[in-house]
Design brief:
The chain has seven helices and 13 strands. With 249 residues, the chain is α/β, with parallel strands linked by helices. An eleven-stranded mixed β-sheet has the order 3-6-7-2-1-8-9-12-11-10-13, sandwiched between helices. A two-stranded antiparallel sheet has the order 4-5. Bound molecules: S-adenosylmethionine.
Length: 249
């Protein structure tokens, strides 16, 4: 059973779904504004290989975000989560999607440890319309469930897993620099630079390929939780130290 989680996915859930439907059995798309369950079913129905669609809704898809100011002047946002669970058959294989309405940081907390094959976050920003949520960052917050999201994400990822990112809402400097460097390059040119490795604590992230281009290239980063796996990867792929681009902090 392979699982993919895409927080703050908006309408882009469909592109990632189409790209991974053959490989993934269990999709979780999380967004504050998922409020049209029938719309999801209609989209799935338009795929000739999908049948036997079933939907179960837990919670209120029309729940609204409320904002209040705490006595200490902090702004507090709140929304009742809603779980739109869709199961279906794709080419005779059972699959499922959870459209999780609410704060995606909580959706991450709800995922079982060591269960995620893919994490995807892209097309986001800290500006207007963006979530300002940084999953590829270890920012501290005094509210524990939204603190150090990268550490939390790593706990959810399987030993062999992947992060898909276009560099949006990333706080690790070497990653930001790399995305800036490749932004105006063709896929072929980026392919020449890959693989590119970034080490965050004990975690190796190895960018191994480009998926597509929207605001920047969406790269597929192979995640290795133990550093010595990097050496195994180098040996397997035949890279020498001098040809291997490696960033560390
Ligand atoms: C800039 S859009 C990006 C959508 C999508 N990733 C794409 O590439 O098209 C940001 C999305 O994040 C959602 N969002 C904002 N804050 C969120 C939060 N805390 N949790 C879940 N979704 C959030 C918004 O509803 C919006 O759909």
């Amino acid at each position: 059973m392979k699982k993919l989680f895409y927080p703050c996915s908006g309408d882009d859930w469909k592109s990632i779904f189409d790209m991974f439907i053959d490989e993934i059995d269990d999709f979780i798309f999380a967004d504050l504004y998922y409020s049209n369950p029938d719309g999801f079913v209609e989209i799935l129905q338009s795929n000739d290989f999908i049948g036997n669609i079933n939907m179960i809704i837990e919670g209120n898809p029309n729940a609204k975000l409320s904002t209040s100011t705490e006595p200490d002047s902090k702004i507090h946002n709140d929304i009742d989560p809603c779980y739109i669970r869709v199961s279906f058959e794709y080419k005779n294989n059972p699959k499922q999607i959870l459209f999780r309405k609410g704060f995606a940081q909580y959706a991450l907390n709800e995922i079982d440890d060591d269960s995620l094959d893919y994490f995807c976050h892209r097309g986001d920003s800290m500006g207007e319309g963006g979530s300002n949520v940084y999953f590829l960052s270890n920012r501290n917050s005094d509210h524990e469930p939204i603190s150090r999201l990268f550490d939390k994400l790593v706990g959810k990822l399987k030993e062999d897993s992947y992060i898909l990112s276009d560099g949006s809402n990333v706080a690790f400097k070497k990653m930001i620099d790399f995305y800036e460097k490749i932004q105006n390059l063709s896929v072929e040119k980026v392919a020449e630079i890959l693989p590119f490795t970034v080490v965050i604590g004990k975690i190796n992230l190895i960018a191994i390929k480009c998926l597509d281009y929207r605001y920047n290239h969406t790269l597929m980063w192979q995640v290795s939780k133990e550093k010595n796996q990097l050496e195994d990867y180098r040996k397997k792929e035949g890279y020498t130290r001098s040809t291997y681009r490696h960033a560390h902090w």
